[in-house]
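Render this sequence as a predicted structure.
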Amino acid sequence: MPVTVTRTTITTTTSSSSGLGSSTIVGSPRALTQPLGLLRLLQLICTCVAFSLVASVGAWTGAMGNWSMFTWCFCFAVTLIILIVELAGLQARFPLSWRNFPITYACYAALFCLSASVIYPTTYVQFLPHGRSRDHAIAATAFSCIACVAYATEVAWTRARPGEITGYMATVPGLLKVLETFVACVIFAFISNPYLYQHQPALEWCVAVYSICFILAAVAILLNLGDCTNVLPIAFPTFLSALALISVLLYATALVLWPLYQFDQKYGGQPRRSMDSGCGKWHTHYVCSWDRRLAVAILTAINLLAYVADLVHSARLVFVRV
């Protein structure tokens, strides 16, 4: 769904079956010589070097190492696909909306590389003995950081500005949807052990909140990527505002209940880290239960702030269909 952003007004245009009202994006070999093309080449090189360095010495043992390796390989592959599509001028044949896909991916890639740049050195690299493997792992971390900056720069360059014709995902609420779903995925990773929440109905409610809000935000993203916003039984702007409001209310309850039942001794929680026997020592590739609970509490607060900002920005946007 192409949109025109004019301050707080978004004008949406729909394309007919005859193609009227749609715009065509033409690819060109010159795409690589443009600033954005050079930036994507930098992303491609950095992610390729990162996973190559790690693969050459087999330095990705454990869940955290596997996550980092997956991140670099995934970002390299998708960035390569984007470059090929633009070089060959295949945007019109791409199955997803090209106005929304590149910036959505760039935002996800920035977050993915940021997570790998933090998780890999803190949970893996510091436990490696000095030598070739450690040197390669440190170098891979450095290239991961450069890739993160490159992807974040692409988001800053291509986000919506007043007067531009763009996709919804390039607007602030669209980018916040990406952040919300990513943070929710990280929360799911930390609560992958049912032991953390199955003993209390209130904590199970929190897990339900994370799941419901993630699904709603993911639906909004997929509808835009597939140019299917017109399939909703209600107007898309109304759906976005309702989604943000519901998510704010649900996350507000989770922000109260999760810390209360995890850290208040009166409700069976553990207020101090020392009370968790599994947190007594540092373990390679392992995050103890108390640290997981704390991480989820912090991420819940971050996502609540994201949903509040989403609600504020969505309320200020006016969609005018033409």
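Summary. The first helix runs from residue 35 to 57. Helices lie at 35-57, 62-88, 101-123, 132-158, 172-190, 201-225, 236-263, 289-316.
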